[in-house]
Amino acid sequence: MMNQGGITETLAPPGTNSLEDRHVVDARHGQPSSYSSSTVGSEASSWTPHSVNNSFTGNGYSAGSTYGFEQQAQPPRRDDMNSATEASSLSLGSTSVPQDYNGYVTYQNPTNSYGYGTTGYTGYYSGYQQQSNHSYSQPAGAYQSTGSPYQPLSSFQNTGSYAAPPSYSNTYYSPGDYQTAGTYPNSSYGSQTWNDGNYANFSTYQYPNYPSTSSAYGSGNSAAASVQYQPQYKQWTDYYAQSEVNCAPGMENLSVASSSNPQCPTPGVPDGTQASNSQPPPTAVPSWRPEPVSSGLPSQQPSVVASAGHDSYWKQHAAPGFQNYNSAAGHSAFYQPLDSKNAYGSYSDEQNSTSNQGPNLQYPVVHQVPQIHQASQQISPTLDPRRGSKVQIQTNPRIVSNLALGLTKTDKAGSGTTAVAKPAYIGVSLTKPNDKGLSSDASDPALKPATFPKSLRGYVERVLARCKDEEQIAASQAVLKELITSATADGTLYTQDWDAKPLFPLPDMDGLSNTFQSPSPLPTLRRSPGRRTKSRWEPLPEEKLVNKTPPLTAEPLKYGGYMNDRNRKPFVGNLESKDGLNTTSFLAVEQKTASFQKPFKRQRLSNSLTTADNGDASSDSDKESSLTAFYSGVMGFSNTPEERKKRESRSKRFEKGHGNRVEISHFKPKSAGSANLYTRRATAIVLSKTFEESGSKAVEDIDWDALTVRGTCQEIEKRYLRLTSAPDPATVRPEDVLEKALTMVQNSQKNYLYKCDQLKSIRQDLTVQRIRNKLTVKVYETHARLALEVGDLPEYNQCQSQLKTLYAEGIEGCHMEFSAYGLLCVILHSNNYRDLSSLMSRLSNDAKNDEAVKHALAVRRAVTSGNYVMFFGLYRTAPNLNSCLMDLFVDKMRYKAVNCMCRSYRPTVPVSYVAKVLGFAYASSVSGGSDEKDSDGLEECVDWLKAHGACLVADNNGEMQLDTKASCSSLYIPEPGDAVAHGDSSLAVNDFLARASS
Amino acid sequence: MAYLSMGEAHRRITDYLGRFSDAVSSQDVASLKHLLSLSSNSPSLLSLADALNLFQDANRLIKQSDKYSQFAEIVVPLFRCLQNYKLNNLVDAYHAYEKAANAFIQEFRNWDSAWALEALYVIAYEIRVLAERADRELSANGKSPEKLKAAGSYLMKVFGVLAGKGPKRVGALYVTCQLFKIYFKLGTVHLCRSVIRSIETARIFDFEEFPQRDKVTYMYYTGRLEVYNENFTAADQKLSYALAHCNPRSEENIRMILKYLIPVKLSIGILPQDWLLEKYNLVEYRNIVQALKRGDLQLLRSALEEHEDRFLRSGVYLVLEKLELQVYQRLLKKIYIIQKQKDPSKAHQMKLEVIIKALKWLEIDMDLDEVECIVAILIHKNLVKGYFAHKSKVVVLSKQDPFPKLTGKPVNA
């Protein structure tokens, strides 16, 4: 919600301004500095108008100084968080809000510290739990230490990763949503690489803040925050992709290279997050601190708490929590806008990265990329070069942003390597090789930045960021408290992917948050972020609000990834952010389902609930699974590498199995309004997953029956649009409608382009629904004939090859007619002995007795023997559309014939005879009329002969004669007049249109 | 089957193992290849299979002894293959054999000399034959046959081992021929090209160095490829080489060569003796040869129609169909000779109507334009020397050699 709000704000400055103002206030309260800083960069560019906000953020700047502040603030936040978790979420809510602000600041600081410290995660965690400041100072060490402890303890790592994830998610989100996070980063930005890390951290912080804001935040914060963030991210991404692309990109930028710009869009989100964070931090902080104090263990404990909180979180969210969130989201959204603006401003001012952010902001793809980057960063940090990796990652992220799509491969590789930062990085940010290098590099810088994402913080921040008003914040805080406490109780505080954890829905804002979440999933779909976002989401703008499930599915993957990252390294923060997104989506789903699960439980529940949930569960349950999930998540963001795909596919199978069924069952029943939207997205996500998986290798493992879409669209007319995502049942026409559509096309008077478009959409719907029957054959036959008529061979070939398999399946149709076409095609195109004789030997006796086939065989004979008289005789009597195919060969045949005549005839040949024998007369008689047939044909023939260099003379009677001897050596094949650079004149639009319309 | 005692089974197995290890250590190819030759159905192998089915613990037997265990990689799958082969589980047998073959090629690679080439030949042959049978079993069970393809990729690996410098290279052509057989059977003839290229361009291969039988087989297949490519001169050359060097007692092989060589020779204007067709049971070509001799278009067409399936399958249909022009040439030549007998001064002017009338006698109905076109093509392809006067509808023949013979050259395009 917040994100959306922020986005919208960014989009609509006025609205945002108001929001910003609020945010500003918030920012001032809590993390103004951080926000301002983060937002400054991103928003600065986009949101210059927000300068006011920036001024607010100015605080954030101070936040830059912030580190100190932040650290301090962080502790409070933690305290707040703890208190929040401990105390009733609601009570915390209101009070916490202010605290949140503080917390935000602190959080941001912590995040900064985290990012800087890279200890990041530990720092984050520790910060969250113990001292945000400490984490900062210690970030690297703490992170590492935490990292190790985390790693040993799956939970720990998870938490670490979670924390990181949050940060990541934050960063990711923050890119868009979390520009506020960006503000965090601002401080970090100041340090540049650190900034990146900081950003990540910030984002994470924010996320944690979010969670913290929600009562559960402390424990659930990371997760919850992450969840929220994720949703937000998704939403943001969606938004970004759609309208807020800028923001999303900004987010990404921030995450990547402390791109303040990206943050700008995110700023709004960050604001929200910050606001939320500020509240949550307190809650989270306290809880966390105690635990963190102990060191790694504390973090774990907090994580556990968090998980507990999560459960509670979820539950609360499910009911009131969601509402609260919504309200909170609304608040956060307002804040976010402000924050984002502020952050942008601050960012821009503080950080150089602003420029980066600027670019990022512009493109949704960028967002995705940044996310990826973050993820990669996080991962890398988690791996060897945690610190360095972070930094590098950030840098990488930038690159990645560019490369994001391509990165999937690397992601896969990364997955292969395990959650190791390198692979992940690679996968996420760059291609594998690049990723590795980057990761290593990044790892070093990462340490400095201490970018460890505090997933939990991020989660909290996200949650809070969502909140638009204090009520929401309070509610969120309450939820966060529960989440965190439950998480701590479960010991999942650290293990959970807070980043991945879906934000619990805010009562009012849920829709928005959801929408945000949905966008984030898009980024997760890394492969074709831009496209997917556009294609998938454009049609579903409304859905965004409603669609939490799709994000969930996407998020689960991320979640897993986050988990992995966290486990391995604090830096995972980036990954976590992704995870966070995933988780957020999951959370959202869960929330919707109203079943609150602890992280682990979540997984299980989530499985039952949705695929996304499954993903979370898997991540929680197994590191590997989480890794796979992560990978998948990574994949989602960028293009996952093959390995990742494979792993994802494995893990996804489960998800699919569960998720799909669940989703389908859930969604189908809902089949109306928002429910439909959900289902659509969910299935779409599932499908996209399956596609990714299938890409890896498990096509045969996919249960296509379960995935087959049943269309519900009643529109007869439908434009063809190549699917870039899973089909949406609402836009797919069922068989009876398709039949009408076919009749409509057949009776249509419109031109070929229209018909082709319609038929392709019919074909697509048939394919998507896996309808293979007479209707299918009819459609392909109709299209093939139309294509032949206008000479659209590529389209014809597509149909022909489909028909071949359809006929082979025993479906009735005009088999003979099309085997004749097939024969003619071979004759006219390849005409080699082996193909021909094998084709002919395969003809059945029935076929050989068929008129059309007989004709085709006769044409073949005429062509191989060069018998032009026979050829043109057959041309005249061609059944069906055989003549259309022969058309393609006419010129060649004529040229050969004239060559032959020139060689054989002496002294002359009357042109009228040539015209008659070579089919000119016939051709003209078709259009001309029998009377002028000869003359018309003659004229055309003369033109043709002249064009081919023949010598024509008039004899005594004035009749044109072909001077064979003179022509013998002068014949040539003219350059086709309508030749085009690409070699296919039928692609020349004007010509094509002319032909098509005739 | 006679009762087989455990002791007897044990004895047979150890006997086999002993012979195997002796053959390898003494580099005795002759006995080694017998031990690998599955399809020979030799009694010793079959009885061994019985023994293996009875005595289930042969693997332990192999691994217990240092002497045998070094061959475990080869022998263990080989035993499994034998068992399955005996039980007619050909797909499983193939899998096991391929495993054994892979282990063998691994060993073979390490042997410096080429002493085991013969054994490798046996393996290359066996794996192909077994794959074909396994594919039949697969398709009978409704599964997609893919073992032959797998055998092809195994043989490509073998080819890679052999196609280098050194004494082993003489084995390359045998493997190439086995590959040809697979590719032709699979219809993936284009895959032959890479192998051919390495044989014909690599300097390490002196073609005459290869064993005779491999050279003949190689020439047969490459000749067939040239037929597909419509390169009749090269096809004639290769198939003639194969015919000339083929063992005269392998009548079936000669027949196979002639099956392609005859159409090729026909298309360059060389007709076979009738006894040749008789001797090698290639009577389907008899009417075609007759048609060419008589200029009887109708006979050619009916002969083509009669054996269409066979010709299409062997891929010579299109070659034979092109003989039509030669039949026209023969027909015109006959008309020319008759005209010359009637009135030598006007013999070189042939009216189109006459040709149409002659075709009518052959029960072929063609209109003026079509015949004119045929004549134009004949002149164009240099089967008739002269020109066609359109106005008067007369073919004016050259006074000197109006119907040039092809004499070994294909009809030019």
What does this molecule look like?
- The complex is a heterodimer of chains A (998) and B (413).
- Chain A is an all-alpha fold.
- In chain A, 78% of the residues lie in helices and 1% in strands.
- Chain A is built from 53 helices and five strands.
- In chain A, helix 33 packs across helix 36.
- Chain A is elongated, with a radius of gyration of 33 Å.
- The N terminus of chain A is likely disordered.
- By secondary structure, chain B is mainly α.
- Chain B folds into three domains: 205 residues, no CATH class; 112 residues, no CATH class; 65 residues, Winged helix-like DNA-binding domain superfamily/Winged helix DNA-binding domain (Arc Repressor Mutant, subunit A), CATH 1.10.10.
- In chain B, 68% of the residues lie in helices and 3% in strands.
- A three-stranded antiparallel beta sheet of chain B has the order 1-3-2.
- In chain B, strand 2 and strand 3 form a beta hairpin.
- In chain B, helix 8 runs antiparallel to helix 9.
- The model of chain B has no long low-confidence stretch (mean pLDDT 89).
- At the A-B interface, helix 44, helix 46, helix 47, helix 48 and strand 3 of A face helix 18, helix 19, helix 22 and strand 2 of B.
Placed side by side, the strands forming the largest sheet of chain A appear as 3-5-4
Q: Which stretches of chain A of 5+ consecutive residues score pLDDT under 50?
A: 1-453, 507-640, 654-685, 690-698, 927-934
Cα(first) to Cα(last) distance of chain A is 54 Å
What distance separates the N and C termini of chain B? 67 Å
Tally of strands of chain B: 3
What is the count of distinct domains of chain B?
3
| Count of helix runs of chain B | 22
| Molecular shape of chain A | elongated
Please give the count of helices of chain A: 53
Strand and helix order of chain B? HHHHHHHHHHHHHHHHHHHHEHHEE
- Give the strand content of chain B: under 5%
Low-confidence stretches of chain B: none
Structural class of chain B: mainly alpha
What's the rounded overall pLDDT mean of chain B? 89
Q: What's the gyration radius of chain A in Å?
A: 33 Å
Which outline of chain B best applies?
elongated
Strand pairing plus helix content of chain A: what structural class?
Answer: mainly alpha
Helix content of chain B: 55-70%
Protein name (chain A): SAC3 family protein A isoform X2
InterPro entries (chain A): PCI_dom, SAC3/GANP/THP3, SAC3/GANP/THP3_conserved
Pfam family, one (chain A): SAC3_GANP
Protein name (chain B): Enhanced ethylene response protein 5
